[in-house]
Amino acid sequence: MAIKAKHQRLVLLVIALVVLIGAGLLAAWALRNQASYFYVPAEITANPPESDRAVRLGGMVEKGSIKTEPDGVTIAFVVEDGKARVPVVFKGIVPSLFVEGSGVVAEGKMGADGTFVADNLLAKHDENYVPREMQNMTEAQAKQVVAETK
Amino acid sequence: MIAELGLAALWLAAALAALQLVSGALGLTRHGETLAGVTRPVAVAQGLLALIAFLCLIYVFAVTDLSVKLVALNSHSMKPLVFKIAGAWGNHEGSMLLWVTVMGMAGGFVALIEKRLPEPTMLATLAGQAFVSLGFYAFLLIASNPFERLSPVPAEGNGLNPLLQDLGLAFHPPTLYLGYVGLSIAFSFAIGALITREVGPAFARAMRPWVLGAWIFLTIGITAGSYWAYYELGWGGWWFWDPVENASLMPWLAATALLHSASVLASRNALRAWTVMLGVVAFSMSMIGTFLVRSGILTSVHAFAVDPERGTFILALLAINIGGALTLFALRASTVTEGERFALVSREGALVFNNVMLSAILGIVLFGTLYPLVAEAMGAKVSVGPPYFNPMSALFAVPMLVVLAIGPLLRWRRDKFARIGKLLVIPALLVVAAGIAVVAIGGVSLLPFLGLALSIGLAWASVLPLRDRNLRRTPLPVWGMVFAHFGIAVALFGMSSESAFTVEKLVAVRTGDVTEVGPWHVKLDSIEPVAGPNWTALEARLLVRYGADGKETRMLPQSRSFWAPPQQTSESALLTRWNGQLYAVLGGEAEDGRWQLRLWWKPFVPLIWIGGLLIALGGLLALAGRVASDVRRIVAKDKIAYRRERQGR
């Protein structure tokens, strides 16, 4: 395994570069496939993602839509953005600021039947913590959120 | 008054940093020798002044001086004293002041004790340290003055985010900052060595204790941060690949690589350019971490600064420091002569392999962390999570772990696999046996399967370097290596077991109901209201038994409501057995008087953090060994000098 001594530094450099560039390319490829995209209801109904792809859905919880299933831990509600409505089911403990008429980001997958199955809900915690996606909501929605926390 | 004193100390410290930069830089020229002498004392004074400024900030927080804007915005007179003090660095300005304080003190300490390097290299190092510090002083004084007064004085403060009202906060940021900023010393040493063309074993030996120290603090900080997220957030997870977690993981990966390459340089005089490069990269990762966390570009419990001016300022500092260092490296890399050579199959070869793997993982994490930011700049909103990070980092971590088992058994310079083949039979058999056992249990996915199998083999292999050694005479750094590598195996087993065998249960129960999760029987006894100093809570009294006839134990998860600022948190309850942890969270009240309970049985999960602490302990042993031998050498030198003096008479 003796390399010609003169070239050792070069060989090591080339090996390191190949591995690092390989890692970079692999990362770029994986990122294209694995990143989870953010949708608002209007986009997700018009152009639904494949049902095995993890995405995030953000919008407002429609007033009067939150219903608890008989098992006491599954809830169903509707996320809307003024243009479209998406039914969501979630099994778990909801964040304390998850209330009707407030903003929410649901992480999960879009089912084939048009119901969004969420594995995680992000709600507004306080005035210092807003899910990044909710910062760009329409002004009316933002005002509504601000009015709620005051 | 105290606030003004702090501000004055901060300005004076900044001025001294400027003087330190000038005197250090001029000291390198022919005419600046007279000025060079002040560099070390100035560095010490700068560190002390920064410390005074920081103590002033702690004082105004401790007495809740609401005329100081920072206190009014982040504190509250009703808070317990320990959280008032910890609140001093639980905000943007205070945490940046902590950063420059640690940086100034570390620089002062180097100036005081480091005598091995040639004086010009020391001057260049201290000037480099002053240059980096100066940027952060400017940032504090111009864009984030922690001592700004407020008029009129409010009657009460805003309070501190309840999630941060936790003892973990008192230690978590200072620990990580000690790590981040310790790497600034490695960075400055690298700059100093490059400027004076002194990249060699002496440079590596001077740098090594700082890298080790920084790495120990980072290890502890990450371990503690992970445990904090685990019990405080109530989500049952211990690592979320959240950008702020990655921000601490990236410097750790770089520091781990640097630690090993510095060892090769110190003892074998090889990997010169690579070590210098890693010295630059490690601190760059610290700064990128700080930028990500503190610029407000990410929203999280860590992002205090939402002011875009600050983000731009940190970005500019980042560009100047990293860009400058990389330019210097590009200019001087050709003058760094090649070190000693080694065969591919050798201890050095294994260390190079793992250095490259660590760098590849670092690249994967960096890409995944920055991608959402880049995508957002181009108009797409994405988030990157475990489906990307887990398999991609495992791709490089698995070969690294295999080499980690073999490398320490190889000889320096040149070796043959045949020589160590016999030693590796048992670990290899253990890996196979563990693999078969896991398959027999069934239902385990690929990564946890690999993790479980490898961790068993690695645990055995990691103690093999102690074979044939007289344990009493084994040097501390060898013990350190064994502990750290064994700790990796322990943590890996914990992580894999958690993801392979966790049982989760989500139910709505009435008081008196019994539910089962894994081997546990959990009974909701009652729900009681309780109150703390600045919160009220609903507390579930759970009676839990391990197995049908185990001893009954109480667990008390709470759902807390804080009133300053008004916010709700859930306090999870944990019950630790030797073989795992039961984790309980109280949810809301469901209809018809039922209560939501979320329960997890997580076999061997505490091993994750025990492993983390073992890794840190290994670092501590190695550091103790290095410092002890340095001290011995200094004492021996003094003795020789003394004898020569006597003989000379």
From TrEMBL, chain A:
Keywords in alphabetical order, please.
Cell membrane, Cytochrome c-type biogenesis, Heme, Iron, Membrane, Metal-binding, Signal-anchor, Transmembrane, Transmembrane helix
What name appears for this protein in its UniProt entry? Cytochrome c-type biogenesis protein CcmE
Gene3D superfamilies to which the protein is assigned, alphabetical: Nucleic acid-binding proteins
Q: Which Pfam families match?
A: CcmE (PF03100)
**Ranges facing Cytoplasmic side:** 1-9
Identify its membrane topology class.
Single-pass type II membrane protein
This chain is encoded by the gene named: ccmE
Q: What is its main location?
A: membrane
Q: Which InterPro entries match?
A: CcmE, CcmE-like_sf, NA-bd_OB-fold
Q: Where in the cell is it found?
A: Cell membrane; Membrane
The task this protein performs is described as: Heme chaperone required for the biogenesis of c-type cytochromes. Transiently binds heme delivered by CcmC and transfers the heme to apo-cytochromes in a process facilitated by CcmF and CcmH.
Q: Which residues lie on this side of the membrane: Extracellular?
A: 31-150
Positions bound to heme:
H125, Y129
The family assignment reads:
Belongs to the CcmE/CycJ family.
UniProtKB/TrEMBL annotation, chain B:
Q: Where in the cell is it found?
A: Cell inner membrane
Residue ranges crossing the lipid bilayer per the database entry: 43-63, 96-113, 122-143, 177-197, 209-229, 249-266, 273-293, 313-331, 352-374, 394-411, 423-441, 447-466, 478-496, 604-624
Q: Source organism's superkingdom?
A: Bacteria
Query: Which molecular-function annotation in GO is an example for this chain?
Result: lyase activity
**Topology of this chain in the membrane:** Multi-pass membrane protein
Q: Which Pfam families match?
A: CcmF_C, Cytochrom_C_asm
Q: What does this protein do?
A: Required for the biogenesis of c-type cytochromes. Possible subunit of a heme lyase.
Task: Write out the similarity annotation.
Answer: Belongs to the CcmF/CycK/Ccl1/NrfE/CcsA family.
Organism for this UniProt entry: Novosphingobium mangrovi
Q: Which residues form the Cytochrome c-type biogenesis protein CcmF C-terminal domain?
A: 315-626
The entry's keywords:
Cell inner membrane, Cell membrane, Cytochrome c-type biogenesis, Lyase, Membrane, Transmembrane, Transmembrane helix
Q: What is this protein called?
A: Heme lyase CcmF/NrfE family subunit
